[in-house]
Structures are given as C-alpha cells and as structure tokens.
Amino acid sequence: MRILGAWTLSAVRRLGNIFTFLANAVYSIFSPPFKFGLLLRQIRFFGNKSMVIILLTGSFTGMVLALQLFYTLRKFGSDALLGPAIALSLIRELGPVLSALMVTGRAGSALTAEIGIMRISEQIDALTAMALNPVRYLIVPNIVAAVIVFPLLAAIFDLIGIYGGYAVAVKLLGMSEGTYFSQIETFVEMKDIRIGLYKSLSFGVIVSWICCYKGFNTRYGAEGVSKATTEAVVLSSILILIWDYFIGSVLL
Amino acid sequence: MIEIIDLEKSFDGQKVLNGIDLTILDNELMAIIGKSGGGKSVLLKHLTGLIKPDKGSVLVDGVDIVRLSGRELDGIREKFGVVFQGGALFDSLTVYENVAFPLKEKVKIDRKELHERVLRALEDVELLGMGKKYPAEISGGMKRRVALARALITEPSIVFFDEPTTGLDPIILNSIHRLIVDTHKKYGFTGVIISHDIPEIFDVADRIAMLHNGVIVETGTPDEIKNSFNPIVRQFIIGMEVPSFKP
Fold first, then answer.
1. What is the full DSSP assignment across A198-230?
2. Nearest to residue B35, comparing CAs of B192, B239, B223?
3. Cβ distance B192 to B47 under 8 Å?
C-alpha cells in the first residue's frame, strides 16, 4: 500500500512538473523580449534535419497506399476513387501522424540530446546564473518553431505522398491521370485540410514540449542523455498516437 | 558581503551540507577547500541560487537569496559572475560571442562599445585573436580563460569560481590562478573559489575555509591554515584521508 502511495505521489509530481514546464514556456512565448534569431535557427533545425526523411517516407507511403487501396477498391468496382482515398488518408491522418513520428525520430531526439548536453555541461546553469531565463532561450524558440514547421512538413508529406500514389496508380496500374486528380478535387474538402492542420499543430506542441522537457531535466552524464533521448522519442510517439485518436474523434 | 547561516541540504536522505556557517567579506578572495565529493560545488550552487537549501540562509549584501525567486533573484544575480567547472561555454557560439553574450543580452549597449569591451576582456585573459574559434576548437585551459572573461565582462561585484583549474596541468593551473589574482586586483570583486589545489591555492586566496563532512571545520588566512593544528586540515594538506571524523 505504501509503495503504491509513493508511486502515485511520484507520478502526480512528475505530471505536475511536465505541465508546469509547458505553462512556463507558454507564458514566456507571450512575454518579451522575443528571440527571433533563435526562432529562425530552430525553424532551420527542424526543417533541415527532417526534410529528406519526410520526402522519402511521404513518397513511399503514397505509393504503398496506391497499391493497397487499388487492390481493395477494385473488389468493389470503385477504383476510380483511388485518388481521393489516397489524398484523404494522407491529409486527414497519415500525413500529420507519420511526419510527426519521423520528425520526432530525427529532430526531436537531436533536440533532447542537445539540451541534455547543455544541462550536464552546466550551460543551462550558466544562463540561469547570468540572470537570463533558459526557458526563453532554449524552449520557447523550439516550441514556436515546431508549431510553424510541423504543418509545413505534413503538407509536404501529403503532397509528395499524393504524387507517389499518382506514380503508382497512373504510370504502373494504368489509371487515367484525369480521373486521379479530378476525383481528389471533388472529394477533398477544406474541412479535411483543417483537420490535418490542427493535428500537426498539436503534434508540434507535443513533440517539442516532451523533447525539451526531457532534455532540460537530464541528469547523470552521458547515460542520462541517452536515457532522456530514448524516453523523449518513446513518450512523444505514444502521445502522438493517443492524441491523434482523441483529436480525430472530436474533429471527425 | 556574503553570509552563510546554518545551511543544510540533503539529497535522497544523504546530508551533503550539515549546518554551514561562513562569512565572506567584501573584496576578499575566499577559497573553500575540501575533498572531492564533499559538497563544495553544492555549496557554490546555493550561493548562486541554483539550489534551494532544506534549512538556513544565504545573505548577499544583507538580502536572503534563499527566500527569493524569479525576477527578485535575478536582480541579485546581476551582481554575480560565475566561472563553472569546465567553463560551461555555449557550444554553438564562438569565443567572441560567448564573451559578448551576457553583455549583449543584459545591457543596452552600442555595437562599438560592445566590441571594445569584448576585446578588453579577451585581452585580460590573454586570448586576443582567438575570438573566432569555437569552444570545441580550444584547449581546456583556454576554455577556463574564456569563462573568466565571460564572467567578468559585466563587471560583477561578486565572482564565483567552481574548481576553475580541475584537470589542468601545473603550468596552465598557475596561469589561471595568476589571472584570477590579476583580475581581482584590477576589478576588486569579491571572489569565492572552490578548489582542492593544495598548495597552489595558498598563493591565491586572502582567506581559506575548509569544508569537511558538510561543515566548515576551519577558516583562516593561508598562513593560519598552513599552521593549523586541526587534524582534518593537516591531513588534507598533506594528502591523507580522514575516514571517521565527526565534527
């Protein structure tokens, strides 16, 4: 009973720390001075680190979708709807989720490691001792950059995925080019794009928040950095999938 | 003046500071010596407000920083310069940018004056011409000197040195000590040096306090410490372990 109580208290304390960290960061976002130079640097960091992997995974996701959905839709005699099926799957679901998971693995892990190393080499203490708020310098630029970059990367993922699907559907499976694109235009609504946008915006907050938190609270040397990085990637990925379900059921 | 009163701190049930009482006078260089893992760096983190104690006070010019947080604490920190163990330089910035950083971020200053002050600070630590290098491209001794320049650029009234010579060879160690003494003479700050450099620290500090098992066991001038009859101090100076001393 005592162990259960201690575990519960510790879990509540950890949860409190995570949310206090986010609240502190959000407060700092809206209170000057703003660090635009650092923001641009972090936008480049997320974009630069993740672009190649987004292009690769986006195109192959679209191609796989085309193969699988063509096989399924043909059974129902609806293979003309392949274009919208691919586009809707990507825009509403796979684009935001898969791109967020890819960015977590690529840039999120690097972010946790970088902040973690700053913690163990006392660079964060140095900022604090200079009477400068480390949250403003290290956390805020990352959260704002992620909120800007995640929807853009998801949009690139969607677009390249739709063209990947086009390559397989039109060039390989012999579908007409006009059917593929005109049906997308007919079936994809602004609401679908909005859902994808909301999802990737919230994933941006989740990934940057968790990765920064884990890096900021790194302890005990190189092993601590490794542990923090693993935890950040695992927790971010799990939260992306859980939050995707909840936001999906609300916005459906 | 810094007054430490009955300071206690435990980590995971283990007492690291066990009632520290110490006064550091204005403009003096006070060295805190003691064996590794004895709580010296933890004590320094209390003095800079990076750690809150379980009990006790740290008065900086009469203000108890233990009770302060946020902007009030930052207001006191404006007086501080800190040289961390290993330097704690920002990896992504050059030597020049590291030294300029606190001034650029905290003080409204025009570019020309900033440039002049950074060059002057680099000159003080004999690193003129190294401004374009990144921390990864310079030696450990140079990193400590850059850290010293960064700590001094805002002309703080109190400077904390956390083992500024750990891991350095004797020649570089002496050059860092000489720089501390020279800059202290030039700027007249109150200095707190955490060190276990025996006997070199005797030529640097005005006064020395010995920390053992979480308490200050002796305070005095270098000569008083050298001639102390306290068995812990004596054995630390000659380099022997004191396994079972209870203050």
1. HHHHHHHHHHHHHHHHHHHT--SHHHHHHHHHH
2. B239
3. yes
Domain count, chain A: 1
CB within 8 Å of B142: residues ≥ 6 apart: B127, B130
Position A79 pLDDT exceeds 90: no
Domain that holds residue A34: 2-251
- Write down the pLDDT at residue B244: 52
What is the model's pLDDT at position A81? 84
Region B1-79+157-247: CATH code? 3.40.50.300
Q: Compute the distance between CA of residue B9 and CA of residue B109 in angstroms, rounded to an integer.
A: 40
Q: Domain extents for chain B?
A: 1-79+157-247, 89-155
What's the token pair of residue A247? Answer: 């936001």
More confident residue, A220 or B32: B32
Locate tokens 């005797």: which residue?
Answer: B202
The CA distance from B177 to B164, in Å, is: 9
**Nearest C-alpha of chain A: how many angstroms from B23?**
21
Regions of chain B short of the pLDDT cut 70: 240-247
Q: Count of H helices and E strands in chain B?
A: 8, 10
Contacts 24+ apart (CB under 8 A), A188-195: A188/A84, A188/A87, A188/A88, A188/A91, A192/A88, A192/A91, A192/A92, A193/A91, A195/A91, A195/A92, A195/A248, A195/A251
| B78 interface with A at CB cutoff 8 Å | yes
Q: What is the ipTM of this complex?
A: 0.85
Contacts of A126 in chain B (CB under 8 A): 82, 84, 88, 90
**Nearest Cα to A142, choosing from A228, A229, A39?**
A39
Return the residue matching tokens 């999938």.
A241
B166 — contact with chain A (CB < 8 Å)? no
User: Which residue has tokens 């022997």?
Assistant: B240
Average pLDDT over residues A148-166: 94
